[in-house]
Amino acid sequence: MSENSENMKPYPQLNHLECKGCERCIPACPKSVLFMSEHINERGYRYVEYKGEGCTGCGNCYYTCPETLAIAVHIPIKEK
Amino acid sequence: MAEKIIGKPAAIYDEFSRKGGAAPTATHYCPGCGHGIIHKLIGEAMDDLGIQDRSVMISPVGCAVFAYYYFDCGNLQVAHGRAPAVGTGMSRAQDNAVVISYQGDGDLASIGLNETMQAANRGEKMAVFFVNNTVFGMTGGQMAPTTLIGEKTVTCPDGRDPRFAGYPLHMCEILDNLKAPVFIERVSISDISHIRKARKAIRRALEVQRDGKGYAFVEVLSTCPTNLKQNAQQSTDFVNNMMEKEFPLQNFRDRFDEAEPLWRDESDFSKSAIDKLYSLEDNASPEAVPDKDFRIALVKIAGFGGQGVLSMGLTLARAGCRDQRYTSWYPSYGPEQRGGTSNCSVVISGESIGSPVVYESDVLIALNQPSLEKFAGDVKKGGVILYDATISGVEVPKNVRSIAVPAMQIAKDAGSVKAANTVMLGVMMELGDTGLPEKVFREAIEDTFASKPKLIPMNLTILEAAAKWARENIK
């Protein structure tokens, strides 16, 4: 994540603990950069992961996610 | 480095301390549930419109019963279907409040249907977010008013059959028949393109509230993967392919631009305003004066409709007012204007009256036999019963003075058979059990017949004739 922000690229901040594994965000992502983990989180859900690149910062994953704290999308603002 | 974050709105708590438990940062909703999505859209609009501090979220009965866990604003949780009523109260008590009624289809379209329509018809200032997922979620997936034809639920396992259960209710279309609503739209949160449109509609409904313009209704077609036994994709497809056919997405009206802000005049409940409204500014209704030494008088007057039972009570109450006593008059009658039985309770007191209902009376006036039979047992020891002398064969309790008054006869002799009630008043005046001076009885008669002045002399004559009878016949 820090890598992305240094590169000034948008990225999804995925809070694995809050993910309930409903998978709504996966088809919502226009770049198909989200996928389901093979692992489960502390609460027993499979969770969503980011491929590490390709996010355009559209925010679709945040808006389609039913949890309030599972996803936040960070979009760098280019300084003029 | 500067960055923009699309994430949890400030109007939603960082941690849900009201929820508590092992996962106080997770919602209580199932995976894939539409409620969380809608909550986030509402929260975001509250942030962006700057209305968080004015907002009052009403949690319904249904899965969203705990909406108050999440929204950092004013919160109310209400009985099933009653959000519009409570919202009305909130909106009227706090004119500047942004009232948000959040209800599911079971709550709004079933038990709350009437209140929903009445509130919409009054154009109450509230944004209603109607979450339609075709099923009662919280209680385990029963058929709802919005369940599709053929859709299976636990209470229609073969699918909804309109021969038994009618057809899905179209709330937007129903409300669109009403004049008052400012904004009505049906949206969906099935997938991201629909969510973007829903976001705009939710924002619009809250803009209507921000500016105090009136009623806004947004129906949101939503998902219930758990009860409908679907995964995320299936739930999206169900909303898009099945629900949308039955519930077409559209804006039904948007009168935001034309609608003027609705500000109601402040209600004036001051005594002077009420006196003015009811023309009570004259001598007939002086202020009551506290008097601890005045013995409270509980009077029950009963008879059949048309005997002047209620008007006699009013005249007695007027006498109490004239004497500057705290006075109440409380009628009880059947649906008939005439012919049924009726009674009223009059309380005359030296201090403010808690209840106007008289269960045990000091004085009972019974103008017919059934009334005497019914109420004689409720007279206190040492109390008085005045009953018309034509009544016979009723046993009255011991320790009570019972007096047969030839009320109808005296009234008839004085010129009006209708005035038996005035005779009873005259006897009461003479007996003095109410603690009121004679003067106020006469004044009260004048007040009662103020609109028919011709009747005043006759009734005063009857009053005096009754008092005379009492002096001569009651020991």
Written account of the structure:
The complex is a heterodimer of chains A (80) and B (475). Chain A has three helices and four strands; from the N terminus they run αβαββαβ. With 80 residues, chain A is an alpha+beta fold. In chain A, a hairpin with a 5-residue loop joins strand 2 and strand 3. Chain A starts with a helix and ends with a strand. In chain B, the strands form three sheets. In chain B, strands 3-2-4-5-9-8-10 form a seven-stranded mixed beta sheet, sandwiched between helices. In chain B, strands 12-13-11-14-15-16 form a six-stranded mixed beta sheet, sandwiched between helices. In chain B, strands 6-7 form a two-stranded antiparallel ribbon. In chain B, helix 11 links the parallel strand 14 and strand 15. The longest helix of chain B has 19 residues. The model of chain B has no long low-confidence stretch (mean pLDDT 94). The interface between A and B is large, with 33 and 38 residues. Strand 4 of chain A pairs antiparallel with strand 1 of chain B.
